[in-house]
Amino acid sequence: MSDRTAGSDRPESGVGRRTVLGALAGTGSVAVAGCGSNSGSDPAGSDSEAGSDSGSSPDDAETGGLDPETVEELAVRFAPTLYFDTAEPWFPTDPRPYATEEDGETVVDGFDAFDGYHEQYDEAGEPPNPTVFYNGVRYEESPLAVVQFWLYSAFDQFTANFHWHDWEVLHVFVDLDTGDPQLYVASSHSRSVPNNEFLDPDPDAVPRILSELGSHSSTLSVNEIPDRFQRVGEEGLLADITNTTIDTVEDLLGIPLAYGLPRDEGMRLPFVVPEYEGAPIYDHPDLPSVTAESLVDDALTVRSLDALESPPTDLPLRETGIAFRHADREDAVADETAGEVITYDLVETAELEGISAFTGPQLSFEFAVPEAVEDAVAGHITTTGVPWDQPRYENPAVDVTAGNHRSELADRYDAVAAEESFGDAVSEEIDAVVARVTRTTESDEAPDGEGLTTTDAVTESFVLIESDSEAVPTFAGGVAVANGVPEGDHRFTVNGAGQAPHSEKLTVAADEPVTVAGVDGEIPLTARENARKLELSDADSDVDVTRSAVEDDFAGRLYDSAIDGSDAVYVHAGGAYTAEVRDADDEVGAYRINPDPPGSDGGGEEPIRIERPETGAAPLAGYVADVAEETRAAVAAAAADSGDDTDGDEGGSSGGPSNAVNGLERALAAAVDAAERAEERARAGDGEGTERQLANVLDRIARIEERLAAAREGLPPGLANATGKRVEQATRRVEQARNAGEL
Fold first, then answer.
1. φ/ψ (deg, to 5) at 732
2. pLDDT in tens, 579-604
3. Whose CA is closest to 48, among 352, 363, 399?
4. Would you state the torsion angle of the CA atoms of residues 100, 103, 107, 110, taken in this order, to the nearest 10 degrees?
5. I want to staple 674 with a disulfide (CB 3.0 to 4.6 A). Which of 198, 418, 658, 697 is the partner?
6. β-strand partners of 472
7. What is the spatial distance between Cα 307 and Cα 361, in angstroms, rounded to a whole number?
8. Cα–Cα distance between 332 and 330 in angstroms, integer?
9. CA angle, corner 687, sides to 681 and 693, nearest 5?
């Protein structure tokens, strides 16, 4: 051993909400579940126990071994066929050739396995030692048994959790009295991402696993297209998962809560080049057989999440390459579907149990956090643990992450505990954070560069919660789910390739079924090329700011977070915003933000700063004056551009659209004057005068609404729309000013 330090034909769009709702219409749904479930690939090894975050585990019956003949019979019968992406570098292999003795123990070192695997692969021209390991257990005094299939890969390359070694597992729950399979559980990325599960599979069908490129996260394929993942049943196809659906977040209604296979659902998923000690891993001198070509193909790879100015849209979607099948069984479907079929050996995991550890130095990733001074959260992924030391090895039921499946097993078998905290009734005590990640784009209904809309994401993103160094990917077109989040305050950060980061603070409460991140469950990201940073600090202020929010005139509220006096958020340069602050007394302040595009003459590269935030009537009145003046100037410019300088009466009742536009401008000017007077009275401490002027502002706003109705025909449609939106915003802020406890 060296002296290295050992550390512990696809659719073009994703699953849309309408597609899911249409597919599930009339079928009903059950509540979100997933209480601290255990991991799939489990890179940290020790995180695999269900309920580990809450310090509890289900009171299931003890398990014991099955007789060798039964175990072998089950293993041969249910040995899965595995389908891999055409760009997959690491296939299931036997780790024993890479084992060495270290301090009297047998270990598999990450460098030895990674380099040795590629050396053998290059020499033979085919995946070395194709092997699937199996283990069988039976619950005491119960007909319920489980055969597990463990898949070892030499490396895991994913955007946010690459690591040495990788173990994936398929659990097949079987009733020994009937011989029928009860449940398939295929491992996903981590304990935070629900596994892919299917209840009551066809007893005569061979299980099929679709392995995610690079990460080997496993999903199931039970539908009529053997190498395609189907999240919901539609167009005559059976759904590949029967997991619990989300019915507590409006925009996510009916989406099955499971990771799935994003690139098979039409979503782009970028991979990142792993680094060790500041250099690409293939440059390390202890990996002479590993080259850049050994990793996931360049066509799917980005140098880092912040290396691009916009999300990549040309990444290839999933395409089947090699299939693995059990050597003693033919599989005509695999022969017809895959470009190449390789046979694997079945080996009992008992033959591996002499290995005490899978080792390797830590690899790291960084998540950008848009604080006032840009920061990054570094999380370190250690190597994987040994399966036979994990609780799910002896009690596979702890790997059931869907509460509806857990409850169904408990109904059928006394051996599986019917505990609410692990069944579908867990919706009352859920410890999951959920949201949907979207993207901001300019709205066609707004003036150019002055209004946004949000649309579906074009790539999947990655979520990191500060209490857990393990990042998790989104799925189903931007659905973010993090299970096992403990009660308390957390920072929730989202990164995406080519997009500015999002970060917010949220509180997970024990009495809430689901903690919803973002605004009503939506988190919009902005392409880096369009992003402007908005910073806020109360260091020089007389108020203690505890919350901030950002609203666009057209897209509405895009950001809302608790803060500790300072905050930063990235906004799209094509928007027109209201920045809102709240202090410890729940007093409100508002500021008008009109970003210059990055690279513009207006200094689009520098952050926009609110350095002395205020709350109360004065800043709110000042905001109304600002937004009214901004709109007045735009209306005046539109009138000038029309080339008609005819001056009509204030009412705009004669003279056509141009007179009405002039009348609108005058009404806006009057509102500016009244709002400025209200701000002056408030800053002078004149409460009665402030109230009178705010009442005048409301009168002026009512006049603006009248003039706008008459002037719409003479205004560009975008400006007319914007004026209406701003009138609504101004009215709300005036009401807040009138109700303010502070001037």
1. -65, -40
2. 999 999 999 999 999 998 776 666 66
3. 399
4. -80
5. 697
6. 463
7. 25
8. 6
9. 55
197 near 241, Cβ under 8 Å?
A: yes
Alpha-carbon distances of 332 from 56, 84, 167, 206, 486, rounded to whole Å: 45, 17, 28, 11, 48
CA-to-CA distance for 538 and 518, rounded, in angstroms? 23
Token couple for 301: 């790879």
Distant-in-sequence, close-in-space partners of 81: CB < 8 Å, separation ≥ 6: 206, 207, 208, 209, 226, 323, 324, 325, 326, 331, 333, 334
Amino acid at 590: A
Residue-wise pLDDT tens digits, 618-661? 999 999 999 999 999 999 999 887 765 444 444 444 456 788 99
CA angle 235, 237, 238 (to 5 degrees): 140
Which tokens is 567 given?
A: 């905050």
The encoded tokens of residue 43 equal: 């890179």
The C-alpha atoms of residue 141 and residue 64 are separated, in whole angstroms, by 10
Q: Which amino acid is at 94?
A: D
DSSP bridge pairs for 439:
455, 525
Whether 337 contacts 227, CB under 8 Å: yes
The 3-state DSSP class for residue 683 equals helix
Q: What SS3 string covers 186-238?
A: ECCCCCCCCCEEEECCCCCCCCEEEECCCCCCEEECCCCCCCCCCCCCECCEC
Predicted confidence (pLDDT) per residue in 80-116, tens digit? 999 999 999 999 999 999 999 998 999 999 999 999 9
Alpha helix positions (H), 390-476 = 391-394, 403-412
Phi, psi (degrees; rounded to nearest 5) at 44: -85, -10
Q: SS in 3 state form for 277-343? A: CCEEHHHCCCCCCCCHHHCCCHHHEECCCCCCCCCCCCCCCCCEEEEEEECCCCCHHHHHHCCEEEE
Among the listed residues 160, 52, 29, the one whose alpha carbon sits nearest the alpha carbon of residue 431: 52
Q: Which residues pair with 465 in a beta bridge?
A: 468, 492
Look at residue 615 and give its three-state secondary structure.
coil
Instruction: Give CA–CA dist 660/713, Å, rounded.
Output: 9
Instruction: Give per-residue burial for 637-662: e unless 16+ CB within 10 Å, then b.
Output: ebbeeeebeeebeeebeeeebbbbbb
Q: What is the pLDDT of residues 498-509, one digit of tens each?
A: 999 999 999 988
Q: Which residues contact 535 (CB under 8 A, 6 or more apart)?
A: 372, 566, 567, 568, 607, 608, 609, 610
Nearest to 573 by CA among 705, 406, 452, 453: 452
| Helix boundaries (H) for 82-165 | 110-124
Give the integer Cα–Cα distance in Å for 657 and 710: 7
Cα 338 from Cα 325, distance rounded (Å): 11
Comparing C-alpha atoms, which of 376, 651, 603 is closest to residue 503? 376
